[in-house]
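Re: [help] complex structure
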Amino acid sequence: KQEVTQIPAALSVPEGENLVLNCSFTDSAIYNLQWFRQDPGKGLTSLLLIQSSQREQTSGRLNASLDKSSGRSTLYIAASQPGDSATYLCAAGTYNTDKLIFGTGTRLQVFP
Amino acid sequence: IAGITQAPTSQILAAGRRMTLRCTQDMRHNAMYWYRQDLGLGLRLIHYSNTAGTTGKGEVPDGYSVSRANTDDFPLTLASAVPSQTSVYFCASSPQGTGNYGYTFGSGTRLTVV
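Output below.
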């Protein structure tokens, strides 16, 4: 059974810092790894999707990497801003279930 | 604006009552999903539909039913609500139900069963 874990559960950093959010998964038979952002009381917004054949994806200040062999993905946020404050969730598209399995998220606060 | 519409936004429901959460998408996606989100447990899949006319059970299907009469709509019904069904419910869709596709989420329905 696929299990997705995100560490840390919460993170508070000053504005301008570069930071890394971690995601690990137990079953390496995935077809993609997706990162989402969730603002309080809102739905999920897709940030990046990494296909299993890819190593990384970039969008603006965000860079997501994927290492299937070690069961890890990281989301790198450069030059963090207060507007980046949100919960970040990763989800693995897994062949066994053929559906997305979500981690419990990292709650990020960026203070001025 | 293309996307997913969920209704209602929030609801307080007496235990034992029946309720249907509505979900409509206008992207002509074949696959649709219902997740519930609970503190500390993340998002868990309740039911899914890979295409109109078919449905399947997810991780936590008990107490819920779904139907998929057409491509656009995917209602979730609680036949007899219980307090443990208090949660935030998200509907999502993707172009296909199998393989490598991104998901689009609705803004959620916050349900409180008392």
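Chain A is about 0% helix and 60% strand.
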